[in-house]
From TrEMBL, chain A:
It comes from the Bacteria. InterPro entries: Spore_V_AC, SpoVA. This is Stage V sporulation protein AC. Keywords: Membrane, Transmembrane, Transmembrane helix. It holds the Pfam family SpoVAC_SpoVAEB. The chain crosses the membrane at residues 34-55, 75-91, 138-158. It comes from Paenibacillus oryzae. The lineage of its organism: Bacteria, Bacillati, Bacillota, Bacilli, Bacillales.
TrEMBL record, chain B:
It holds the Pfam family SpoVAD. This is Stage V sporulation protein AD. SUPFAM superfamilies: Thiolase-like. The lineage of its organism: Bacteria, Bacillati, Bacillota, Bacilli, Bacillales. Signal peptide: none annotated. It comes from the Bacteria. GO terms for molecular function: acyltransferase activity. Coiled coil: none annotated. InterPro entries: SpoVAD (IPR010894), SpoVAD_sf (IPR038369), Thiolase-like (IPR016039).
Length: 163, 342
């Protein structure tokens, strides 16, 4: 806090340094339930994966696909579901409850793109939607690719890469 | 007239002859719903963008404030306004509709009292007879500019605050009926190094403490001189901090009712607003909607509104800068005559 030396004031300025205040303010934060959040994330994230598995099974049994063949249409269905829920204004509310549980699956990635596209629609289709769609998803793609590169190198060095 | 180091004493007793507040759906389902002049049931207010919706709120609040004073737009001599948007577009575009000479100000969420203090200073000094002060914020424009797209699924921590969708405006005049503005204390920028944009209450609390103490030092008043002292938007985390710091510094805050607009505007237990309300409109709608009505009814005689602002930008916090805080205080009394329409 700004210090006014010998001001005419009746009330003295606070003798708390920024460092002391930061520690003090940290103590005043309401506690966050890590265990509770983990549990919620597990349940919601797990449920999303369960839905994904059910969709895969449907493709396998109804359309006679192999598990490998079924994976691509499954991802497409999950993305579609996420985009619909985002557009209906449901996904963000789910996320406040679920945290990482709704952010980590592919539905979270679709939500990040869809929400940005919706938000910037008022700025036009090209610079608004096109330019901002990857605003959040871009970071996932960049660091996903970088991580894959290093994992690939590690595989090469350790000779564990499968052909 | 300068009083002390940073306060203005309005010897000519400028009067708020008309005030109005317009809000969105979440505020309309809060405990103060009855106080507002208009509650929009939808966040988009049938506009094509969030920004247009925010502008509409401000235009409506301004229009109502002038109407309540029994005047029309042409009677507004100056308009002082600001908001949270980049280049304060909501205020500037609303000023285009109002048509009065315009002074744009920015004090983040402290803009409500910053603009009111300036309006009163203009009237008190004789620079104008009728000045309109107004501000607005919208939950979705703030989310879009400062955080993530509104529909993006991110989990907010319990220290986060919920930006109030609404607008408040007050028409200040040299004469008339209504609450009287006695004095104002202009705050300094105070920064104790809080960097978390999801904990703005803690970032702004020291600024509120600084301004409240400066107000008492400058005016010779004490907390007991006010029936109610409210901070702008410190909410559930920042407000207790401010109270504790003030008490520690020997300011007897227990001699008055000390509350926060961010805690008044929502039912923090029931509504999903994390720590409470924030935004330019937070202190504006609570003051111009709720508190002025309580003054008019005689439930309160004299109040001090300490609007708090976090002077960060989306760029500054991403670059790791801390969040500077500011607070401006305005003292309002029940005033003269029949109390006027608030």
């Amino acid at each position: 806090m700004a210090t006014a030396k010998n001001g005419a004031g009746r009330f003295d300025k606070m003798a708390m340094s920024p460092k002391e205040y930061q520690v003090y303010a940290k103590e005043k934060e309401p506690p966050r339930s890590i265990l509770g959040n983990c549990l919620k994330a597990f349940l919601v994230g797990g449920s999303i994966c369960l839905v994904g598995q059910a969709v895969t099974e449907l493709f396998m049994h109804l359309m006679n696909m192999t598990p490998e063949q079924a994976s691509n249409p499954t991802v497409a269905v999950m993305i579609l579901l996420s985009v619909i829920l985002t557009s209906l204004g449901v996904y963000d509310k789910l996320a406040q409850f679920a945290g990482a549980g709704s952010a980590v699956p592919v539905t979270g990635f679709a939500n990040s793109m869809c929400s940005a596209a919706l938000e910037h629609r008022s700025e036009g289709l090209v610079l608004g939607v096109g330019g901002n769609m990857f605003k959040l998803a871009g970071a996932v793609i960049v660091y996903g690719t970088v991580a894959a590169f290093f994992v690939g190198i590690a595989h090469l060095i350790l000779g564990t890469g499968g052909q | 007239m300068l009083k002390g180091k940073q306060s203005w004493w309005f010897a000519n007793r400028p009067v708020i002859i008309g005030a109005s507040s317009v809000v969105g759906p979440e505020e309309g389902s809060g405990p103060l719903a009855e106080s507002f002049d208009l509650v929009h049931p939808e966040l988009d207010m049938q506009q094509k963008s969030w920004e247009k919706a925010e502008r509409l709120l401000l235009e409506q609040a301004s229009e109502f404030a002038v109407q309540k004073a029994g005047l029309s737009r042409q009677d507004v001599q100056f308009y002082v306004g600001g908001d949270l948007m980049n280049q304060i577009i909501s205020s500037s575009f609303a000023a285009r509709a109002i048509g009065a000479p315009y002074i744009g100000v920015f004090g983040a969420c402290s803009t409500s009292m910053e603009s009111l203090a300036l309006a009163c200073q203009l009237v008190d000094s004789g620079a104008a007879e009728r000045v309109l002060a107004g501000t607005a914020s919208h939950n979705c424009t703030a989310e879009k500019q400062f955080r993530y797209p509104t529909e993006y699924g991110s989990q907010k921590p319990p220290t986060a605050q919920f930006t109030v969708t609404g607008a408040g405006a007050a028409l200040v005049a040299a004469q008339g009926n209504g609450p009287v503005v006695e004095c104002a204390t202009i705050g300094k920028v105070v920064d104790l190094g809080i960097k978390d944009p999801f904990n703005m209450g803690a970032a702004m609390a020291p600024a509120a403490v600084d301004t409240i103490q400066a107000h008492f030092n400058d005016t010779g008043r004490s907390p007991g001189d006010y029936d109610l002292i409210v901070t702008g938007d410190l909410a559930g985390v920042g407000h207790p901090i401010a109270k504790e710091l003030l008490m520690k510094n020997g300011v007897p805050m227990d001699h008055t009712e000390f509350n926060d607009c961010g805690l008044l505007v929502y039912d923090v237990e029931k509504q999903k607003v994390q720590a409470g309300g924030s935004g330019c409109a937070c202190s504006a709608v609570v003051t111009y909607g709720h508190l002025l009505k309580r003054l008019a009814k005689g439930e309160l005689k004299r109040i001090l509104v300490v609007a708090t602002g976090a002077l960060l930008s989306p760029i500054s916090f991403q670059q790791g800068e801390s969040i500077p805080g500011i607070a401006h205080a305005v003292a309002i009394t029940a005033g003269n005559g029949e109390g006027g329409e608030a």
